[in-house]
Specification:
Chain lengths: ~250, ~250
Amino acid sequence: MKFYKDYRVQYDDCDETKRLKLTTMINMLMEVSEAQLANTLGSAKAMNEQGRGWVVTQYEFHVKRLPKALEAVKAWTEAAGYNRFLCYRDFGMEDLEGNELLTVHSQWVLFDLKLRKMLPTDPDLVKGIGAPKLAKVPRFKRLRPLEAYDSSHVYRVRYYDLDTNHHMNNGRYFDWIVDTLPRDFLNQHVPVRIDLRFDKEVQYGDEAQSWLKFTRTSQEECLSQHLIKVGEDDMALCEIAWRKSL
Amino acid sequence: MKFYKDYRVQYDDCDETKRLKLTTMINMLMEVSEAQLANTLGSAKAMNEQGRGWVVTQYEFHVKRLPKALEAVKAWTEAAGYNRFLCYRDFGMEDLEGNELLTVHSQWVLFDLKLRKMLPTDPDLVKGIGAPKLAKVPRFKRLRPLEAYDSSHVYRVRYYDLDTNHHMNNGRYFDWIVDTLPRDFLNQHVPVRIDLRFDKEVQYGDEAQSWLKFTRTSQEECLSQHLIKVGEDDMALCEIAWRKSL
């Protein structure tokens, strides 16, 4: 069942083109799922008490249009299903007329916060959140690190990057990914599809290298491929298909 | 006249101690004043059309308690007055019982965005927002750069740090200021009073040095003094009085 939350996009939620930042978009969607889970075993509070946490492993975003400053939107989420080890959750945003702005598929694991290891799906938990058991495993894009990238920037995890689970806020990765692209490019292009996979957790104080490979795929379209590394470890992979904004 | 807006503090608004981040706090307060100004000459939209912008020159924060994740709060603002060149605005947050959480005084100038220079106060504008003319000039703390600091970190303005006025978001300065303090300290202390002065605008791509001088003033209290520099230029000065959190 879809769960909805109303938002009015604020100026500080937006980049300088007045479009919703991808960082804020993720945070909004996480708020909606937190609101849906509030009185279940899956809520941040209940999970914390049991020493468990949700860890996202992959997102797939399809963007028709990013909402603009002061626009009213409806964000939604739905538990899409689960299997033995993975839970799936969909998200979206609509304008007030019900037109789709964006949709998101995502894949999650349950994590033992003390032992730092994956847990199998908890049947009581998924029952409480109304997720169906899936016979078929949903497929996400297989992202692979490239042999070579064009350029990189260095980023360090800051105190305010940490969330209440003591990890780097998920949305913050977009800060590091998007910032490797030139300002002029970002002001003239919008994302159409984004695949983002998390492999390892970036820790407080870590210096991460955010690598970029940029390819123009047609006159109006581009592909940016991203790898975030800490030392020799691959932490996250991302691909963004862009089109020229109107 | 005070203008109120209701908020529920979200997890992603908070640091790892589950207290509201100072960066988010500023953004919330800016949203409240934007909402109050919405249909006046002082709104972001109207200002933009006239090629003008509000530029804050100093903030003074008094913090009794920072709200926590999922807490409902009322944020308020009020045009406190104006004189020939400066406008003053107060802000605050209260819990639902009306207990004060924090109050803020601030000082603003009107800025010509094309000519990059200060404008005198516009009588029509201040009339529209109900600000009284002040006979006496409100005094803010006189912050001065120190002869020497203890340590510094380097920060670069990123794409998502830019606001819709193409400047670095005001709240972002707190990111650079707070991050110079150790994580353990931040997890065990809360700000009581903050004075923050802006001298020059940090630009996209600038590498800024955020300097820190730390002084223990008593067993329970500390003072941190901050200077943000770009090259030889002083961009912002800040002092934060801290107390041990309970």
